[in-house]
Amino acid sequence: MGERDLAGRLAAYRAAVDAALTRWLPPQTESPPVIHEAMRYSVFAGGKRLRPILVLAACEAVGGRTDDALPAAAALELIHTYSLIHDDLPAMDDDDFRRGRPTSHKVYGEAMAILAGDGLLTHAFQLLSDSAGDGVSPTARLRIVGEIADAAGSLGMVGGQAMDILAEGKAVDQETLLLLHRRKTGALIRAAVRVGGIAGGADAAALESLTRYAERVGLAFQIVDDILDLEGSTEEMGKTAGSDLRKGKATYPSVFGMETAKAHADSLLAEAKAALDRLGEASWVLAGLADYVGRRRS
Amino acid sequence: MGERDLAGRLAAYRAAVDAALTRWLPPQTESPPVIHEAMRYSVFAGGKRLRPILVLAACEAVGGRTDDALPAAAALELIHTYSLIHDDLPAMDDDDFRRGRPTSHKVYGEAMAILAGDGLLTHAFQLLSDSAGDGVSPTARLRIVGEIADAAGSLGMVGGQAMDILAEGKAVDQETLLLLHRRKTGALIRAAVRVGGIAGGADAAALESLTRYAERVGLAFQIVDDILDLEGSTEEMGKTAGSDLRKGKATYPSVFGMETAKAHADSLLAEAKAALDRLGEASWVLAGLADYVGRRRS
Q1: Contact in structure between A20 and A62 (CB atoms under 8 Å)
Q2: Is the ipTM of this complex over 0.90?
Q3: Nearest Cβ partner of A115 from B141, B146, B158?
Q4: A222, B109, B152, B287: most buried by Cβ count inside 10 Å?
Q5: Tens of pLDDT along B42-58?
Q6: CATH class of A6-296
Q7: Do B121 and A118 touch (CB under 8 A)?
């Protein structure tokens, strides 16, 4: 694998994350099997593994060993997956398909889908508490628990989803939309990069660089997602194109205009890459991921 | 307060827990206010605070300071509360009232009730990660995170709720009912007592005694709950008497017979108190709680 083979490195990260998830989720033989089957069904549903990839890339960017960041990487993917299961519920966004497959409640029923989500969220913290097999200090591990809980909770992702539901079909101003995006998707992406850095032993200056990078990539990622929902094909998206519009969701292009949205995405990604300067060569995967987010929209 | 004033001690524990919950939940002024209002609505809905009381009593039983166990006590109450919000949802047990008040989804709608539950579960781990203001080591705190995640997850409480839903309206054998009770209510009660001990610095022998106590009190508590559902008045229960029967829920009396259920509850509580022998005088509150569970059913 060449030093700068981005696709190869991402594939290696994905393989490590998938192996960890396979190993660390409760076996399907555990009673009752249906809840553990439902948990795995959604975890292995073709996700891009963006958040765990960011965890591992951030860990390497500060000179850490990816094995030390693997529990946090797996935990963030479980939390992302639980949020999708709950978001898809009839009482929430009421989606029957995700990435071309029936959503959890269509396969297992609403009750089991709610519980599968609850189980994944809880298991994420179980993984973070289990200190076997890595070299992260208890103090750093606790800090990782706190970072992830902050990002996923009612002041982060859960609060963002609540704002999203409250905003449906309403006019939303720019400030509210930015707060909504920062919480609903930005907080977990920011936490992914930060906990990767913490697991890798980042000092305060390196963590500050990672945070600047993450905040900009996170918002750019969401802007691009909003643009693709309007301009992309259903195949590219893995979900029905135009669905935000039909649901009356506030999006970056609808609030800021399409040209401004594209310009903001580009400048955020340039700023994200600039924030990596202090980290040097080791941050090349993070830089490549910023480019990748940018290419998705073109 | 007299040394053996059980009611006084329990009232003091409750006051400490309520003050901690008031202080440690996100303020209702945080955006969006409705999610934080919903979280507080269910946390301050007249619960008995049994789990946090067990945490604090177990901490004192091994000579610890209750302040050191307060984050774990508050976290367990948040997890218990989230489980009630999700259990009450239309897709689950579909209950409109709990303790005489409308349930979360009746007040805030289903989407916000799901999110309030998610937010409480996540915030529990935020509290456990925050090391300010107590003297528990990072290693012990991580162990507490792990104990609580194990007890609350798909191999514990969430798995028990899944079993409960799958068992509705079906004949359940004795072994299945015991596993269901051990997971749905037993696991969190066991964790409450154990993490109280861990926060209080319990050695292995003391933790073993606490665990024996907790497993027996937890099952007895559930048996008494099942008995009261059949024999108690709606007023005593705070929920509609006979509701388990109407929902076709498997209960201890329906599977083992009423006389056996009562005899088992009594012998479990006697064993629970015997398990405290090694802990001596400091465990008097735990002994009093076992007596209290027994008195509930007579």
Answers
A1: no
A2: yes
A3: B158
A4: B152
A5: 999 999 999 999 999 99
A6: mainly alpha
A7: yes
